Amino acid sequence: MTDCEREGPYVCVIGGSNVDIQGFPDHELIYKDSNVGKVKISLGGVGRNVAENLARLGVATRLISVVGDDAYGRQILEEAEQIGLNMQDTLVLEGEQTSTYLSILDHTMDMVLAINHMASSDRMTVAFIKTKRQTIENAALCVLDTNVPAGVLAYVLTTFRDTVFFLDTVSTVKARKVKDLIGRIHTIKPNRLEAEILSGMPIRDAADLRQAVGILHEKGVRNIFISLGAEGIFYSNGEIARRLATPKVKIVNATGAGDAALAALSFGHLRARTIDEMAKLALAASIIALSSENTINPAMSEELLNDKVKELESC
Prior knowledge:
alpha/beta, UDP-N-acetylmuramoyl-L-alanine:D-glutamate ligase, eight-stranded mixed sheet, 14 strands, 21% strand
């Protein structure tokens, strides 16, 4: 019996790890000028964020990622150990810098600009991922993010035919990496623009949205959760198609809400929840994330998530 099999059911996450550096202005942002405000440094990366949320939800999680052996990389590994996130499969690059994500938020706490330095993520190779075969094959679920190199994504999706894959598309540019392989994904969580890329059609209204979802189902995607921002979440499994409205929420930090939502969808799948229940979990997790200054809300837990779902149902 392998270590993975002895561990019991777990989620494998293959994705990016980086350090988030965020700038918060004290007043309305003045462009092309120096703004008085605060700078916060926290751990991030889509894959790492999803994995941390899962760990905080009590789900056994193994993260396959890449970090440098600098201070930030060591901090990522140390914090993972503290919260019970298994990173023994992560590649540590000797003498190299951990990926960095720099973002500027406006006075409403919404992101207006970001620069990502993700060179270390490109060091994840097919040869490396082949050494993680047991970790991927034995996972109850595997979450991918498109920060992973296209070649690695293609190898994983075409090799592990029996693995259930969830996907975070990350951005419109990176979503193109998986457009031709989208049928191998069980569950996706794009926003409207990313859904346009994956479906190959513009989404201008509700009719377009349903048509695009139909195209994605025809390609083989089982569950689709499309983030519509303030308009909520549109979700479908081919039989049920609904929109779940978002209540008014005070946004403390908009970064990380999507990652929390994907973690909640993964949690719901593992707990055999219905698609309606999964959508509520995703919305509840995103609200929990939005209410924290940190990219990951340190209060995230299964109890808090369930309480937030009950609160949404009572509205």
